[in-house]
Structures are given as C-alpha cells and as structure tokens.
C-alpha cells in the first residue's frame, strides 16, 4: 500500500516551479516543474536554460505523467523479501568485504550508468578505485560514448568536446553522422531547423544507412553501406588535400604528427569513384557532400551511435575529427566536431572517471603519476595499477566466475548488453548481485539478491553535464517515496560498513560536488582541460542556486567557456593534437548465406531505453505501440513477408519476434529493430538476444548496429488482441505485447496452440489489480453485464465484447491470420461512459460506421492527433505546410517532435 504520508509530496513553497533538468537525453534541457499531487507534475520548458530556451520534446513534456509510484521499488529487499536498510546495506558490505578478502579486489565489480548524477558516480568510482582498489567499475556509457572518449583522447590528448550547441546555429553546414537527431536529440534538431529558417545558406547533410526522420529533413541524405564511415571521411580528407583546403599553418602550429593520416587516407580512399563504390552511394551525391564541406568554412559535424557503436567506432570518430583538425575548423564559432552524448549524464560520468580505463578528473589509470595524484587527494589506501574490465568483458568474467559479486546501478544489462541471453546466464550464475533501481519488476530485478530502492527523477538532487560540457542542477521537487534513498547515500553507507567511514561520511550531494570540483583543480597546472576548481568553494546556497555553466570553470574562465582549442591548447605534450591515421575495416561479422541481413538497432521517438519511465504514459506509447522490424520491400518479397505480419528474427545468438514494416527508407540487405522492448512489455521483443558481442578494439564498445540475421514469417495458430479497462494478469501466448493506453490496456497476442473454447479462455483472463486498486471495484456496482459475441469456427474468427452498464469493459479479436481490425477506434471507446448505439452496432465489426470516427495511429503525442485525421485534413482542407496543419488540428504546435513526420505526410 502507498502510505498516507505520500498524499502530498510537494517540496515547493508557494507553488513556485522548481528549475531542474530533463532526465532523458544528453541535450540536457532545463525544465520547470510544479508538483500536482503525489504522482504528477506540471512540466514546462525553462526559458532561461541555454540548452533549450523553453522548448521540450515529446518525452520531456510528458515527464509529469511518468511519476506514478505504482511500480516503484520503495523498500530494500533481500531475495524479494522486504528488509530494513541496515540489513540490506550490511549484506552488501559484508558480501563485498568477504569476497575481496578471499579472492582479491578484482573478484568484485560495479556496473553503473550515465543516468546517475555526477555526485553518485563520483562516490561509486571513489569506492571501487580508491578503497576496494580495483579498476572493475564500468558503465553503460561503454555501450554508448566510449568510442568517442577513446578517439578524443587519441586526437586531443583528453576527452574534450570542443564546441557548443550555438555552433549549430552559427554554422552554414551541419553534417549529422549516424545520428537520428530528429528523434534522439529533438530539441537540438529543432534549434537546427529554426536556424535554417533564419539562414538560407545553412545546409544539413545526414549520413545514415537508413532514411530516418532526420534524413527526411536534410538537404542531402547519404545512405551509405553500413560500417563504411571511415572510408567516407578518409575520402573527404583526401579530397580536401587535393583541393588545397588543408590549413597547414594550423597543422604546423598545433599538431604533432599528421603526415601519416594523409598517407593512410590516400591509400584507403584514393578517388571519388572508389569511395562511392565502397560506401554504395552515387558519385554525384558524394561529390556534392565533399564540395559543400570543402567550400563552407563554418561546418559542424555531429555524430552519435551510428558512429560509436561499431567495431571500428574509435576509428570512425577519428576520421571525422581529422577533417576538422586538418582544416583548422575547431573551437571557432560555427565550426567543430560535436559528439552528441546520449544519456543525461554521460559527460558527468566521464568527468568522474566512471569508465574502467579512466581515473577521476580526466586522469589516466595507467599513468603512475596520475594514480599517485588521485591517491594523494583521496588519501586512499590502495589504487588499481591496471584498468578494470570493460562491460562486455566484465560480464564474461562474471559468467566464468572470476567476478563473484557485482553491484549494478541505474542500468539494465539484462536488456541493453549484446548477447543478452549470455548476460542473463552470467547474472544467474553470479554468487551475489546487488541492484540499485527505482523500479520493481525489471528483467534485471529477477537476478538480484539485494534490491536497493533509489530516488528517481524529481526526487533526487545533484548535477549532470550535457553534450556541450554544460553542468546543470537536477533539483528535487518531490519528497522521497517509501524508503527510497539517493544513490550516493546508498554507496556511502555501504562504504562506511566496509570500514571506510571517514572518507565517505557525506551527508549531502553538495559536499560531494565540492570534493569533485576540488580534485579537478588539484595539481592541475593547466594540463587538464577538465578543471572546475572555480566551483570548489561553492557554499550550500551557491550550489543550490548554481546556474547552468560550461566547463572549464577556473581562474582563467570564471564564467565557463563556450569553446576550446580555437588556438590549439590541446592536452598532449607541447599542447598539441594528433591526426590519427585510420584504415577502413569491415564490420566484425559480415552477413552470409545463412544470415543474409544486417540487423541495425536503435531508438524510436517516444520511448526511452527499456521503457521503465516512458512506458508509463499513454501519451508516449501510442506513437509506436509494438516492437517492429523494418525492412526494404524487395527483401520482404524475397523472404515472403507482408506489411503487418509477425516475423521471427534469428541470429547466431538468439531470436525475437516483431511486427513487419515495409519501407523504402530501409536499404536492401538491412533490417532495423528498436531496442526498447523488455520483459514487462513484450514476451519476445528482446532484440539484444540477437546482437553480437563484437566490440571495438580501442574502446570496447559493442557493435550494436551490425549483426547478421535471418528473417522469416512467424506463423502461429492464431493472432489476436485484447483491449481491457483493467490490466490483465499473465496471458499464455508466445507473442505478447502489453501496451498502456488512455484508460485501457492493449494486449497484442499470438500463439501456436488454440484453446479449446475462446469464450472460456477470454472470460478466464484474470484481472490483475494493483495494491491501490484492490478497493476500487472494476465493475460499476449496479451495472448489468452484457456479452456480445461472434464466432466463425470455419475461419477461426472469434470476437467478443463485455459491457458493464453500457460501458465497454473488454473486447477481444482473434483470427487465424494477422489481419485484424485497427485498434485505434476500439481503444477510443474506453474513454466513453457508455458506448453509443451506433458504435455498439459496429463494435464486433471492429470499425466505426463512419471512417471519420477513427483517428488512426497517433502522430502528435501532445494533442493525440492520429494519422487518419491528418490525412483527411490534408486532403479536404488542402493543407500544404506544417504551420497550416498546426492551425487546423494543433498537431506539431507544442513540442514539435512530430514535425518531421508531418512533413513526410505532406510530401506523400
Ligand atoms: N527517443 C529517444 N531518444 C534518445 C534515447 C532513447 O532511448 N530514445 N536514448 C539516448 C541515448 S542514451 C543515445 S546514446 C542517443 C542515441 O542517438 P542516435 O545515435 O541518434 O540513435 P540510434 O537510433 O541509436 O542510432 C542512430 C542511427 O545510426 C544509424 N546507423 C547504423 N549503422 C550505421 C553506420 O554504419 N553508419 C552510420 N553513419 N550510421 C549508422 C542507424 O540507422 C540510426 O538511425 O539517443 C538519446 N536519445
Ligand atoms: N541493441 C542495442 N542495444 C543498446 C543500444 C542500441 O542502440 N542497440 N544502445 C546502448 C546505449 S547507447 C545505452 S545508453 C544503453 C541504455 O541501456 P540501459 O541503461 O540498460 O537502459 P535504461 O532503461 O535507461 O536503464 C536505466 C535503469 O535505471 C533505472 N534508473 C533510472 N534512474 C535511476 C536512478 O537515479 N538511480 C537508479 N539506481 N536507477 C535509476 C531505470 O528504472 C532503468 O531500469 O543501451 C545500450 N544498448
Ligand atoms: S531533447 Fe527532449 S529528451 Fe532530450 S533533454 Fe530535451 S526534453 Fe529531454
Ligand atoms: Mo546511450
């Protein structure tokens, strides 16, 4: 039961909004939040935050609807049984202590996350590296940004993002590589689109094997063959050299070696036709891109996972940085390489050294002087002398029993690591798994010996750093629910119980931040760019009032710095940088006759990773309700697949089921599947079960975008869906997807065995009442129950509906084939207190008497505008711009995340 104390969780006085930061992507938008009851809040973009100036995307603007406590983890548990904090903390501390005493410090590990706050991250890293004395702390940023980290270190001598978001607005050419910015960094993309309206010279190029919402809005889309980015940028370096566009003065003054990189580019990408052939694109398009780049001074190249998540990810990033260094286009207004970080605090994690091969404050674990420096600052008893294991290797070590105790915080490796079945097997075998989480019922939770309830967004307090080095405060506006605690608190109390009380006596995030800031300046004679010593003296009030600021913050830059490296000042000896020679390499595992397609995985607009938060609001589940596999129409013909059919995907590692989508946006030979669906939402949607655990040799980042797979129709005995006002318990079906709707639940189902009688099967579906709903009757008290039914045993069709006092309670549609009525109109009937006669007549037909009544799949999440409504309005009212659509239907006028899709509807 939710305690009465939760009835008002507001921490704000006088209803004033609290300024905080969005917990989703690395854009790091400022949010103004006002609590509205214990489980919701009014959310607005913060007009003063320099990342978003008031804008929010669909995910950010729905934050207020994701604060439900229904599935939260609210109490510490051991083996699923509620225990006291003292028991839980002591169990973790004692088990770690015992394991270390018996097997040494490398027999334990932490696996942490870019969704921790900087303060949480700092403490976890300090405990593992300085006190336990092992390098075995790695983070999910390994799966995300580590190729960029490795490449920036190779190029600049330090992991530094030189530019700022405003450079995107000052540029005349923006090159987006392996980034679906329109969906994954939406507010930044909106800033680019707005800049394009102001500056008619500004062009956007998108380099992505798939045509995404980003590609649709670009001036030029290069659908390169997967994995060929290095050849493309090597070719560009070569082209720039042939066309006298190299800034040799910059190279002479600020670079160490550079000749070898030119030579390697010349050999690997000798001519335009050769590059066009390697990349599988037209020579004309390639020449256009090269010409634009060569003849535009202000160029920003931004990239994300299509670049990083590759067995040549580090080389890909260096090939991009090379063209910027070689032309001196770095650190100046409107130009530079700009890595777009994924998670809200991917950058903060790098600053505190959360990766297994780093130390805190951008220092190197393999450098004895650096180790000594950190050890001295922490007054630490021991330091590791070698890097720890990187994520994929770390879970292998768990499987092999070399690591015997692991503590996982704010990430779900059972879902997000490649070869996920092997990871689950490793967790199953591990002697001790502790998990710090906000949610109960995750796939990972099932493996936990100890579950530690952590504060979630809105409750936690600290700092994050976004993609442009900007440190912002996340502030609490809701009191802690149940017994949940801040992550830093949990780690510190375990550290105390392990005997390190003096060094972990923290009582607030502020104290930790000061220590972190102080370390960044400790014996830093200007050699380390990451220096926020200017914030080391912040008092509590100053920390609470801290305005967003871009590091470095020190005596030279008391107000932070928008750009770095404009006049060199790199971090290698002599303040130089390096042009890194890179050679194109094929992806680790090429497709073959048995597994002929390349599986590409990534994100959709309205879901965040494993859906623990974005799955909580129907506003975000409507856009793409079900896991899908998108493939080219030619491939579909080849493999006998039709639009809307269920397909089985299979690799050498595992299998998954998804709904087929046919599209020319997908190049032949590739199939794209989103990464989001995990156990709580889909029985067979775990795409990482298929993904190969190949990694980049420098960064250890997994190749999540390239696995050979095969695809075939999945032919169960029956297909169906059930819409229900109340959530239903376990439904026995091979294929089951659970979708939260507005006032209803939708279950997409398919199974290989037909039950003996449908009516009994459907009536037997157990309603699953949550603790809170126990008292609320699902059925209006004096409502009379009414069953409508239609069955045709000959065709295998069965349809039924249950009404209580005229109110739709449940309906089910079953068929032998996957062809079933659209769900949108039926779902809309759950909003009504009584199904009108007209609709009741057509209920079992599954479609409205008039087509006008079906809005179709939701495109605009903010105003619930569906694709059918849009198509009708475009035709009938002759709409030709997104502004006109906005005026007619409001679609696209709030967060703007759907504008690329509105544009493509207009085009069609
Ligand atoms: N809506 C939403 N937004 C998010 C997230 C989310 O879960 N949902 N997560 C956040 C996080 S942590 C991250 S890391 C970012 C990721 O942001 P993005 O990197 O933009 O997103 P992805 O969809 O993973 O992949 C981007 C693109 O890489 C392309 N790609 C695949 N192979 C290649 C290749 O060989 N070369 C090139 N050039 N491109 C290729 C894919 O087709 C895909 O369109 O998004 C952040 N923002
Ligand atoms: N196939 C494939 N796999 C991928 C990717 C891909 O593109 N393709 N992308 C990779 C990338 S870039 C990333 S970043 C990862 C993301 O993968 P994960 O990190 O595994 O995904 P999340 O769902 O964000 O997991 C975060 C978990 O932490 C919990 N949580 C949230 N806030 C807090 C907090 O403050 N404290 C604690 N203790 N817990 C919290 C959430 O409830 C959630 O369960 O996935 C990677 N995996
Ligand atoms: S772009 Fe959207 S998800 Fe990313 S920080 Fe801004 S509001 Fe949040
Ligand atoms: Mo990420």
TrEMBL record:
Keywords: 4Fe-4S, Electron transport, Iron, Iron-sulfur, Metal-binding, Molybdenum, Nitrate assimilation, Oxidoreductase, Periplasm, Signal, Transport. Belongs to the prokaryotic molybdopterin-containing oxidoreductase family. NasA/NapA/NarB subfamily. InterPro entries: Asp_de-COase-like_dom_sf, BFD-like_2Fe2S-bd_dom, BFD-like_2Fe2S-bd_dom_sf, CT_Nitrate-R-NapA-like, MoPterin_dinucl-bd_dom, Mopterin_OxRdtase, Mopterin_OxRdtase_4Fe-4S_dom, Prok_molybdopt-oxidoreductase. The keyword Isomerase does not apply. Its cofactor is [4Fe-4S] cluster; Mo-bis(molybdopterin guanine dinucleotide). The keyword Oxidoreductase applies. This is nitrate reductase (cytochrome). Coiled coil: none annotated. One of its GO terms (molecular function) is nitrate reductase (cytochrome) activity. Its EC number is 1.9.6.1. Residues 15-71 form the 4Fe-4S Mo/W bis-MGD-type domain. One of its GO terms (cellular component) is oxidoreductase complex. It comes from Methylocaldum marinum. It catalyses: 2 Fe(II)-[cytochrome] + nitrate + 2 H(+) = 2 Fe(III)-[cytochrome] + nitrite + H2O. Catalytic subunit of the periplasmic nitrate reductase complex NapAB. Receives electrons from NapB and catalyzes the reduction of nitrate to nitrite. GO terms for biological process: cellular respiration; nitrate assimilation. SMART domains: Molybdop_Fe4S4 (SM00926). It comes from the Bacteria.
């Amino acid at each position: 039961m939710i305690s009465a104390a939760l009835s008002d969780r507001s921490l704000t006085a006088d209803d004033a909004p609290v300024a905080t930061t969005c917990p989703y992507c690395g854009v790091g938008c400022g949010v103004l939040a006002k609590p509205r009851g214990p489980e919701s809040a009014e959310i607005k973009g913060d007009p003063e935050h320099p990342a978003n100036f008031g804008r929010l995307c669909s995910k950010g603007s729905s934050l207020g609807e994701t604060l439900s406590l229904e599935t939260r983890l609210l109490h510490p548990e051991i083996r699923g049984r509620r225990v006291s904090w003292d028991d839980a903390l002591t169990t973790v501390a004692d088990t770690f202590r015992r394991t270390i005493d018996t097997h040494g410090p490398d027999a334990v590990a932490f696996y942490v996350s870019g969704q921790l706050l900087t303060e949480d991250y700092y403490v976890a890293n300090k405990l593992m590296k300085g006190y336990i004395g092992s390098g075995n702390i790695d983070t999910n940023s390994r799966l995300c940004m580590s190729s960029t980290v490795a490449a920036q270190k190779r190029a600049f001598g330090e992991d530094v993002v030189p530019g700022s978001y405003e450079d995107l607005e000052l540029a005349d050419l923006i090159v987006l590589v392996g980034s679906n910015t329109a969906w994954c960094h939406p507010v930044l993309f909106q800033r680019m689109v707005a800049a394009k309206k102001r500056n008619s010279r500004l062009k956007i190029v998108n380099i992505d094997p798939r045509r995404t919402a980003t590609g649709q809005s670009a001036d030029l889309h290069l659908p390169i063959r997967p994995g060929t980015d290095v050849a493309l940028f090597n070719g560009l370096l070569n082209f720039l050299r042939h066309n006298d566009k190299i800034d040799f003065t910059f190279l002479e003054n600020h670079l160490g070696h550079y000749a070898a990189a030119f030579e390697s580019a010349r050999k690997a990408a000798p001519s335009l036709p050769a590059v066009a052939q390697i990349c599988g694109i037209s020579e004309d398009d390639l020449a256009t891109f090269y010409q634009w780049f060569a003849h535009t001074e202000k160029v920003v190249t931004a990239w994300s996972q299509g670049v990083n998540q590759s067995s040549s990810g580090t080389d890909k990033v260096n090939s991009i940085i090379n063209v910027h260094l070689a032309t001196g286009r770095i650190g100046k207004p409107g130009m530079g390489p700009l890595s777009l970080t994924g998670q809200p605090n991917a950058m903060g994690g790098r600053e505190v050294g959360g990766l297994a091969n780093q130390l805190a404050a951008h220092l190197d674990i393999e450098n004895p002087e650096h180790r000594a420096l950190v050890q001295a600052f922490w007054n630490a008893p021991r330091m590791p002398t070698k890097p720890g294991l990187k994520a994929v290797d770390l879970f292998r070590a768990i499987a092999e029993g070399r690591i015997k105790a692991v503590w996982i915080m704010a990430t779900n490796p059972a879902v997000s690591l490649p070869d996920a079945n092997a990871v689950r097997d490793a967790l199953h075998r591990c002697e001790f798994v502790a998990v710090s989480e906000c949610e109960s019922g995750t796939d990972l939770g099932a493996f936990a010996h100890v579950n530690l309830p952590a504060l979630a967004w809105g409750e936690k307090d600290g700092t994050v750093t976004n993609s442009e080095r900007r440190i912002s405060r996340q502030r609490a506006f809701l009191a802690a629910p149940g017994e949940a605690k801040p992550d830093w608190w949990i780690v510190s109390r375990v550290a105390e119980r392990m005997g390190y009380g003096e060094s972990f006596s923290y009582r607030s995030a502020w104290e930790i931040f000061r220590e972190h800031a102080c370390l960044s300046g400790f014996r830093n004679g200007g050699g380390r760019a990451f220096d926020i010593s200017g914030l080391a003296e912040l008092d509590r009030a100053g920390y609470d009032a801290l305005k967003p600021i871009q590091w470095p913050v020190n005596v030279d830059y008391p107000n932070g710095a928008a750009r770095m490296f404009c006049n060199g000042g790199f971090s290698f000896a002599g303040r130089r940088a390096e042009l890194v020679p890179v050679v194109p390499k094929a992806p680790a595992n090429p497709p073959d006759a048995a597994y002929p397609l390349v599986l590409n995985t990534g994100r959709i607009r309205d879901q965040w990773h494993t859906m623990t938060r974005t799955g909580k609001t129907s506003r975000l589940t409507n856009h793409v309700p079900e896991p899908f596999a998108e493939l080219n129409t030619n491939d579909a013909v080849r493999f006998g697949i039709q639009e809307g059919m269920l397909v089985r995907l299979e690799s050498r590692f595992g299998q998954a089921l998804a709904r087929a989508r046919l599209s020319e946006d997908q190049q032949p030979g590739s199939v794209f599947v989103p990464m989001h669906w995990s156990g709580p939402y889909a029985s067979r949607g775990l795409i990482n079960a298929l993904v190969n655990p190949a990694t980049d040799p420098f960064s250890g980042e997994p190749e999540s975008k390239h696995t050979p797979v095969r695809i075939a129709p999945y032919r169960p005995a029956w297909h169906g869906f059930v819409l229900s006002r109340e959530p239903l318990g376990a439904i026995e079906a091979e294929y089951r997807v659970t979708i939260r709707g507005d006032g209803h639940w939708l279950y997409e189902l398919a199974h290989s065995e037909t039950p003996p009688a449908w009516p009994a099967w459907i009536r037997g579906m157990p309603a699953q009442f949550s603790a809170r709903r126990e008292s609320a009757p699902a059925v209006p008290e004096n409502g009379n129950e009414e069953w409508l039914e239609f069955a045709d045993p000959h065709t295998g069709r069965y349809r039924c509906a249950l009404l209580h006092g005229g109110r739709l309670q449940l309906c089910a549609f079953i068929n032998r084939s996957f062809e079933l009525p659209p769900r949108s109109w039926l779902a809309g009937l759950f909003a009504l207190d009584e199904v009108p006669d007209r609709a009741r007549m057509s209920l079992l037909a599954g479609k409205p008497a008039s087509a006008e009544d079906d809005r179709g799949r939701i495109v605009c999440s903010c105003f619930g505008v569906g694709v059918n409504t849009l198509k009708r309005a475009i035709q009938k009212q002759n709409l030709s711009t997104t502004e006109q659509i906005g005026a007619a239907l409001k679609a696209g006028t709030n967060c703007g995340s759907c504008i690329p899709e509105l544009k493509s509807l207009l085009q069609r």
